[in-house]
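USER: Study each token:
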Amino acid sequence: MFVIEEELAKLPKTPGVYMHKDSLGEVIYVGKAINLRNRVRSYFRKT
């Protein structure tokens, strides 16, 4: 089972880049972050 908190814990707290892909696996967005874990986590917060 996919548990987002477990996956986020695997990410480094260092600078990095991340990609968003569509359902076909095509890259639709590339972003960069000073703290990769926090940036990716922000996409999965409840608003």
Observations:
- Helices lie at 4-9, 36-42.
- Residues 36-42 form the longest helix (7 residues).
- The chain has a mean pLDDT of 94.
- The chain is about 30% helix and 30% strand.
